[in-house]
Amino acid sequence: xxxxxxxxxxxxxxxxxxxxxxxxxxxxxxxPSAQSMRDAIVASEAEIVTxxxxxxxxxxxxxxxxPTLLDTLRESGGRLLPNxxxxxxxxxxxxxxxxxxxxxxxxxxxxxxxxxxxxxxxDPVELVEAARVLVRDGFVVWPYCTDDVVSCxxxxxxxxxxxxxxxxxxxxxxxLLNPFALQALRKSMPQATLIVDAGIGAPxxxxxxxxLGFDAVLLCSAVSRARDPVEMAGAFAxxxxxxxxxxxAGVIGKSERAIxxxxxxx
Length: 266
Known about the structure:
single chain, alpha/beta, TIM Barrel, five-stranded parallel β-sheet, three-stranded parallel β-sheet, 11 helices, 10 strands, 15% strand
């Protein structure tokens, strides 16, 4: 569980003027039951939970979970972040975002525009186009993107509130496949709010992202598909806080040679 005293010392973070303490964002899809989803959200202490409008519109279990999700967020004071998952062009993503705003009464949107059906890699051109339109229409846009510096700069120029570069393909559980690129992105954009999204499979992956200086992580499958989603949610909460504390404390650099922790004379 998150250490609230440590979170307070950290000073938290904010998006669109909304102060936040938890640096773990959680998805709401693929839980075995509405109750397990609710309990996992509580255990994670996540203040932001995503929901896919297309999943809901298609019916099935996700639709029946929505009342529980909304009740949970209402009780905890959390916020809903609708996403445009399942969209493959800017037009579809824009239309989905508009519907989400009307249904959920929020101008926050996690913008997903997929360019490849196998890897689910974002389409950088369509993503920027959709972002520009939505920002002009008053949305607070959270784009799911790659770790490419040029694409990320264009999204910031379009007015996106945060950037959400992937760690690995969605649902793959592979962790941070290119920590060098993520670290370079963090260094090149020191003032931007950066959240690692997708591919995180274990709490150690989340801790690694936070140790690189990212502001938060977003994950879903690693919790919802775990044998015990509730316990795993708590494990991720602890890992995110540990990684953030380690970044603030200053992780030592790597060395190719052994360095004695207790120097002794020759």
